[in-house]
Amino acid sequence: MQKQRRISKAQLREFINKISRLLEIQSPKISTDTNFAAETFIAQYDPETDTVFVDMFQEPRILLFTAAHELRHKWQRENDPDFYFGDYKPRSDFNDSDAYNLQTAELDANAFGFLVMEIFLGVEIHMNGLKESTEIKILDTMDELSIYLDYKLMKEPPLSWFI
User: Fold this and answer.
1) Distance between CA atoms of 104 and 33, rounded to whole angstroms?
2) How far apart are CA 9 and CA 120, in angstroms?
3) Is the pTM of this model over 0.90?
4) How far apart are CA 2 and CA 156, in angstroms?
5) Do residues 46 and 77 touch, judged by C-beta distance below 8 A?
6) E-assigned strands of the chain?
7) Mean pLDDT lowest among 12-16, 105-109, 122-126, 132-136
């Protein structure tokens, strides 16, 4: 299997700008400080500083999926924080990842991230480690989101450096 090269911070900035335009939000700052709230995190959005924190040493597909996921959290906070985060609990409150990922904010952000990867970048990301019932809920949410995102994603020019 061929190893993928890392992406640069400038390439990540380009991707974040494109996805921010798609979501009609202002592009947040980017930080490579990896002092995340949980050991399993590889990115995190901080609404207080409007910053996406990322681990730049991740495989590019995982990094871009996670950046799109975190940008969706920013969109959620700006558009309907009570709906998405009213009953939200941190990862540390859960014994398994499925329960955490079934929260409204996580279902929506995961579905958005998968759609961006599939439609915009032409890459399928596998939902490794999740129960089939959780995968189905994410796929159902992807179907709901795709109704309005397909067209917007297809209008964006591709990232030449990703192909």
Assistant:
1) 27
2) 19
3) no
4) 28
5) no
6) 29-31, 43-46, 51-54
7) 122-126
